[in-house]
Each structure stands twice: as C-alpha cells, then as structure tokens.
Amino acid sequence: MPIDEIGDRALNIGVALHELSAHAGSPEELFLNWTSDPSADKKGSQAMTMTRLVRSELRKLTSTKMPFAFLGVVVVLAGLNAFAVIAGTDADGSKAFVATAADQQSLVAFAAIAIAREYGHHTVVPTFLASPRRYRAVLGQLTAVAGVGRVLSVIGAGLTVTAVALALPTTDHGFLVSAGDVVRVVAASGFAGVVGAILGAGIGAVVRNVGGAVTSTVLVLIIAPPLVVQLVNGSGSWMPGILANVVFGTATDVAAPAALAALVAWAIIPAMVGLIAVQRRDVVRR
Asked: Which of 21, 35, 39, 283 has the most other CB atoms within 10 Å of its CB?
C-alpha cells in the first residue's frame, strides 16, 4: 500500500501520522527475522546451526553410494600398487613408492562431483532455505566434504601401505619404510585428502554440473600443470603433486612449511571463488 494512502486512511479515523517512510527487507532478512529466537544466545544458536548444517551435509553424502564408490577406487589403487610390486622390477618398498598421490587426486573428483550434484539435482535448495545466509551453508558443505575426504584418504594410505607390505615378500626387496615414516605418510595423506576435497568442492560450486566438474578436475590436476610448468619457469615445484610429495617426505623441492602453505592456498582459493559464486548467483538455473 502506498505511504500516502496509509496516511489518508489513518487521518480519516482521526489518527494523524507524520513523516512516514518506506522500509523493506530482502526475503532472506524477513525469513531470518520470522524464524529467529530472541531469547536464544546468538552465538550459541549459530554454533548449533552450523553443527546441524554439517550433520545434514554428512547425511547427504553418506546416504548415497558415492563415498562407497570412491572407497572402492582407493581399494583398487592399493591393489594396483600391490600388483606393481609383484610384477615390477623397480618396486623396492621405499617410501617414494608407498606415498602415492593418486587417491588424493581421486578425492578432488569426489568432492567436485558431490557439490556439483547438489546444484544439478537442486538438493541444495532446502539447505539454503534452512540457512538463508548462504556462506554458512557453504562452510557446512566444505566441512563435511573435507571430513569425508580425510577419512577416505587415510583409509587409502593405510590400504596402500598394507598392500605393498604384503606383496613385498614375493620379491627380493624388503619393506624399507620405518614406523615413523608410515605414520607420516598416513598423516600427510589425511592432510592431502582435506586439501583435495576442499579444492574439488570449490570446483563443484563454480561449475555446478557433474560433467563440467569432472572435466574441470581433469583440467586442473592433469592438463594444466604441465602447461603451466612449460610457460612459467620455476613453477613446477608449486604444483599440487610435487607439494604433496614434499609433505610426504619424498621430495625436497621446497621447504615443508612452504609446501603446507601452498597446498592450503590451492584449496582456499577455489573454495573462496565458489563461495562468492554461490552468494552472487541464483541457486536454480532455468
């Protein structure tokens, strides 16, 4: 109703209103005002909501067959490593052979597909309705995929170490990795799994369809690095695979702290781009 009409109607019933002005909020702000609990502690309420968001995302991930499919991928990779030990002539059971980054690369695709599926199938819409502040919903998604990525990566590393150790007695080589180095490989795999999952989630949030997410993952991990290395001198040491090997302890191209920081940047930058894209674009494409 126009402001002038409101003033006229009020005056007709004997109520004088002065200096009326229009106030309008966005639908998201109205929803937050209607559903907020003024008696609840704001900080505590947000913390509980984030917990529920993460639980919701974990439930969505674990209620599909996709995590189990990628668990099958890491099992196959471990089996391939064992076969390489048995059939190969240069597989000596050293840490360089055990610390493979193949499962972490597969987890980038896992996260990219997981997030892209949410936008492609519109299952993200109820999440944004429950949490109109989209950045919090995206943080919940990132936390969930990072947790699942870490678990799958640690399992993959453990299976690889076990498979190689079991296959080595069939050769003339021994298991040359100490217990401390095994712990480092597994811990580094967990870190790389988190980085890979967040990187993939950022790709999925930007692309928002499964085919494009898979293509973008291949481009970022396989096609782009060799091209960048050819075009930019000295960039090879900062590619994700080399940085992961530094964290594993099988390469010394850069210092370990620098490798950790660079891997974090590889994850954070795509995640931030994805967050900005989610904030600025419509959820559902027509």
From this structure: 283
Query: DSSP code of 170?
Result: G
Torsion (CA) 6, 12, 17, 23 in degrees, nearest 10? -10
Total-model pTM: 0.74
| Rounded Cα gap, residues 219 and 270, in angstroms | 14
Asked whether residue 90 carries a pLDDT value surpassing 70, the answer given is no
Nearest Cα residue to 131 out of 217, 48, 248, 38: 48
C-alpha closest to that of 141 among 63, 65, 217, 58: 58
Do residues 202 and 271 touch, judged by C-beta distance below 8 A? yes
In this predicted model, what pLDDT tens digit does every residue of 22-67 receive, in sequence order?
666 555 555 555 545 444 444 444 444 788 888 888 888 888 888 8
Tokens read off for 223: 């096609």
